[in-house]
UniProtKB/TrEMBL annotation:
InterPro entries: C2_dom, C2_domain_sf, C2B_Copine, Copine, Copine_C, VWF_A, vWFA_dom_sf. This is CPNE9 protein. CDD domains: C2A_Copine, C2B_Copine, vWA_copine_like. Keywords: Calcium, Metal-binding, Repeat. Belongs to the copine family. The gene is Cpne9. The lineage of its organism: Eukaryota, Metazoa, Chordata, Craniata, Vertebrata. It comes from the Eukaryota. GO terms for biological process: cellular response to calcium ion.
Length: 532
């Protein structure tokens, strides 16, 4: 099937085990996906935590790529809530195994499975709903306020929030958004929020969107104030005028003759923008330019010794060559000229033995580009024979060099990816941070593959996934660095092909997002691809 078929899974649980002595459990569901061709499970994501309930309906969805020809095994774990990052077996509420194809193949895409895993106890069930997402990529931003809502709290006013539901093909409703709670008011103004159109109505503009108004209560038993219904089409009319909805409580309406409503909700603003994808830009002609920088410092060990990270036996490429090949072979598909500038750093270079932090591997200062990944590999092996491994390990010169090139064309037609392969012992951390912070406003990304046994704390810091990278008080505008340790991908079975495919996949995983974040902050739209 075509990659890009996206399936959205909605998760609910019923009759969960009650573990909390004082109140009901605070459940969360964690989804693990089995890595294809292995028995390894990898966390894919988790729902939000819902306090104090045994029958949660989670808002946060899992969106999976669905491949008809693959068996995509999923495992859902229900730990006892957010309080424990690593949950012990004693608190476990159960788990369920299911293949994505089973959910999609079930009647109406709904599957209910018993949760198991707590001996001698009934753990309740997990309900999964799979809906193929229409390819509607519009994103809506709207803001609502309410007036004169019913007072629900004995002391003080209500604490109102809204819950949005989209209707499914079969007439049932699926929760798709909750606003924040505005405390102690009957006239709340909620913050503007953004939601994909497909989440609101699955691309069907006339499908009912139901909105419930609740009064928040600490114990989780929120009071229902009232409801109203609309549709995407009706909401979108608010672009030209305010739309006011009456909030009705059916129970009150039946009981009280004089009942008018439980307040009103006004749609203050509504705007739509289109969300572009990585593929849109690539099809619109954005070129990825791939540059390689390889660590030739003495800490790698003498290339002629089998203990060296640069050592290549007749039977086995070095870790450097393997990493270069794995990443390069995928990225070269997006680079039309297949010419890759390739540099070494940290060596004494002939003829005069000067230390260089950006010498061309092909020894051609005028044109450091090599033809294809094979050309880069050849030049790399050639350089190992002619230069003397030395030091220090400076990243900044080669980062600044690529940044200089990236700065010349910033209209979105060119995007640069620098691959640095290193043993991770960095000497110019401060200069490198400065270089990356500067580069973060340019159309470029940096991939670092760490080879060898070192502790790579410095590389993790540059990666900036946990803490946004900063230098002298300036923060990186976007996260542009992705680091992976090579050793995580060398499996004992010696299945090099599979492990290198995993390496490439992980290293390149963040590039599309990083490219999109550059285009978005610069408001660059993809050029229309010529009709085929």
């Amino acid at each position: 099937s075509v990659p890009g078929t996206k399936v959205e899974l909605t998760v609910s649980c019923r009759n969960l085990l009650d573990m909390d002595t004082f109140s009901k459990s605070d459940p969360v569901v964690v989804l693990f996906v089995q890595v294809s061709g292995s028995s390894e499970w990898k966390e894919f994501g988790r729902t939000e935590v819902i306090d104090n309930t045994l029958n949660p309906d989670f808002v946060r969805k899992f969106v999976l790529d669905y491949y008809f020809e693959e068996k995509q095994n999923l495992r859902f774990d229900v730990p006892p809530g957010s309080h424990s990052a690593f949950f012990g077996a004693q608190d476990f509420l159960g788990q369920a195994f299911v293949a994505l194809g089973e959910v999609i193949g079930s009647q109406r895409g709904r599957l209910e499975r018993p949760l198991t895993g707590v001996p001698g106890k009934r753990c309740g069930t997990i309900l999964l709903l799979a809906e193929e997402l229409s390819n509607c990529r519009d994103i809506v931003t709207m803001q609502l306020c309410a007036n004169k809502l019913d007072k629900k709290d004995f002391f003080g006013k209500s604490d109102p929030f809204l819950v949005f539901y989209r209707s499914n093909e079969d007439g049932t409703f699926t929760i798709c958004h909750k606003t924040e709670v505005v405390k102690n008011t009957l006239n709340p103004v909620w913050q503007p929020f953004t939601i994909p159109v497909r989440a609101l109505c699955n691309g069907d503009y006339d499908r009912t969107v139901k909105i419930d108004v609740y009064d928040w209560d600490r114990d989780g038993s929120h009071d229902f104030i009232g409801e109203f219904a609309t549709s995407y089409r009706e909401l979108s009319r608010a672009q030209s005028q305010f739309t006011v909805y009456e909030v009705l409580n059916p129970r009150k309406k039946c009981k009280k003759k004089k009942y008018v409503n439980s307040g009103t909700v006004t749609l203050l603003s509504f705007s739509v923008e289109s969300e572009f994808t990585f593929v849109d830009y690539i099809r619109g002609g954005t070129q990825l330019n791939f540059t390689v920088a390889i660590d030739f410092t003495a800490s790698n060990g003498l290339p002629s010794q089998p203990t060296s990270l640069h050592y290549a036996s007749p039977y086995q490429l070095s870790a450097y060559a393997l990493a270069l090949k794995a990443v390069g072979e995928i990225i070269q598909d997006y680079d039309s000229d297949k010419l890759f500038p390739a540099y070494g750093f940290g060596a004494k270079v002939p003829p005069d033995g000067k230390i260089s932090h950006q010498f061309p591997l092909n020894n051609n200062v005028e044109n450091p580009s090599c033809a294809g990944i094979e050309g880069v590999l050849e030049s790399y092996l050639q350089s190992l024979r002619t230069v003397q491994l030395y030091g220090p390990t400076n990243f900044a010169p080669v980062i600044n060099q690529v940044a200089g090139t990236a700065a010349q064309v910033t209209d979105g037609s060119q995007y640069h990816v620098l691959l640095i392969i290193t043993d991770g012992v960095i000497s110019d951390m401060l200069q490198t941070k400065e270089a990356i912070v500067t580069a973060s406003s340019l159309p470029m990304s940096i991939i670092i593959v760490g080879v060898g046994p070192a502790e790579f704390e410095a590389m993790e810091e540059l990666d900036g996934d946990e803490v946004r990278l900063s230098s002298r008080g300036r923060y990186a505008e976007r996260d542009i660095v992705q680091f992976v340790p090579f050793r995580d991908y060398v499996d004992d079975s010696g299945n090099e092909v599979l492990s290198m495919a995993r390496l490439a996949k992980d290293v390149l995983a963040e590039i599309p997002e990083q490219l999109l974040s550059y285009m978005k902050t610069r408001d660059i739209k993809p050029r229309r691809a010529d009709p085929e």
